Amino acid sequence: MLTSEINFNDIWGIQGIPVSQMEQNDQDVYITGSGGLGLIVAVGSEVLREGRLKVGDMVTVYSGQSDLLSPQAALDPMFCDFRIQGYETGDGSHQQFMVAQAPQCHKKPQDLTLEAAGSYVLNVGTVYRALFTTLQIESGKSIFIEGAATGTGNEALKIAIKSGLNVIGLVSSEERGKQIEAKGAKYINRKDKSLEKIFTKIPEKPSDIKKWAKDGETFLKKVKSLNGGKLVDYAVSHAGEQSFPRTFQALAQGGTLTFYGASSGYHFTFLGKKGTSTPDAMLSKIRFRANESALCYYGTSVDKSGIVDEVGLEIIETLRERKARIVVACYTDAQKEFIESLGFGDAIKGVVSLESMKRRYQDDFEWQAPMKALPDARKETAKFKEAVQEFNEKTLKPFGSEVGKALRSPDNPRGNPDIVFERAGHDALAVSTAVVKPFTGKVIYCEEMNGKRYSFYAPQVWMRQRRIYMPSANIFGTHLCNAYEVSVMNDMVDAGLIEISEPYVVSFDEIPQAHQDMWENKHKAGNYVGNHCLPQLGLKTKEELFNAWSLKISMGRK
Fold this sequence. Notes:
Elements: E1 3-6, H1 8-15, H2 21-24, E2 36-39, H3 45-50, E3 58-61, E4 64-65, E5 83-84, E6 105-107, H4 114-117, H5 121-134, E7 142-145, H6 151-162, E8 166-171, H7 174-182, E9 186-189, H8 206-215, H9 217-225, E10 232-237, H10 244-249, E11 251-259, E12 267-271, H11 279-285, E13 293-298, H12 310-321, E14 325-330, H13 333-340, E15 348-353, H14 354-361, H15 381-404, E16 419-421, H16 429-435, E17 442-444, E18 453-457, H17 458-462, E19 467-469, E20 473-477, H18 483-494, E21 504-507, H19 511-519, E22 528-531, H20 542-554
């Protein structure tokens, strides 16, 4: 490896936040580093037979690895035991020699310096997928981007501008605002006196929720003033639980927010938007297919008997007509008995009663709906991990096991449903987004959600690329990119459609200090790279590199 990318994946791997990768990998030495620039020194027989790569090639290294023999690879390699090398594997690019899969190795964009070519794939690749694959942005529309002056936010801003969107960036100072304004964007300074106190999670009390919504009116007016009197079509979030609720609030009717990280916390909240739909229309929206599996909730809106849930019955009947494999989760035993008595036949594969689960599991089961607030992951790391573990052990695992009993198969051993039909009358979104299938799973609503608070655990959505569909807005998780997207992204770099900024270069020995600076938010730039053995900066080709090495040796320098 000639260089290695230095990014926040290193930080999360070292700190074990939100998940300790080191605890899940039994290795004596754990090497982080996700991506960089390398020279190929050996290839396997199948790589040699393919002929795309050979010994001596200089390549940019993408950090995504997957099960290349899985049938799902034809859908997206990211859906096949996907992992980020270094962060999740412990054999990353902060070392002299590294083993990579062939799809990780890509031709270096011709006009980039070697240090730049080894610095960008993870960050810019994440943004590429977020914009072009997840959001499917269109020229002429509008987008709101958090942290738009630095890091991935700035990369998203530059790409969105070149793609013909009206871009509004959220920044933390007037100076940074002027910087992105010079690039062609508009900006909102969250430190402005009229806004500095509004970027918070949504409180739980109904009276406090109303005040929170009212406090955001000035922010929404600013968004509209910068976008022709309208809210935005798209939003990109990565700053975490404090900014996410307002960013979602900025979405117009039918808008979509995507997010790929959470630097300020992982317990996300948002306020539902006005609008309703029908169960059939929402199933059409997600292109639901016959024989797919669905979990739906029953009992969130019942009559005086506490048994009849009209909307719940409509959802079940619609799923039955669509030939779904259905599991129903009820709140009470009486509701369970009622559903089982209605003659839905083989369409219903299982009925779960939360009341019965509590009786059987006793203290080992707690229905966290909504999910409890989490301690600060940076300041109270141990307590944060304990809270997440409690949710997993006492809520997610028991409930997921009960649901999964009816849906397990050889290719779905846990029995995760393809979709979860959520209900507006409760907040079980944290459970639903963790139970639904990873990567292809969808959570949908059809009822009125306006003014109601909802919450979920962010890593379950972004790291597993799950999606939430509502009658008037969407939230899509997104994560890194696949190898094909890297190829297309590099073509766009060569065409001048994506700009790669020169990184801040540190020596190999300085990588630990760079990590510390990033953790303490003291980093000197948004884009770092570790220099393993480049003799000088500014080189662009392998030939220039070899000549510089030769000159260094001939001059007797170390």
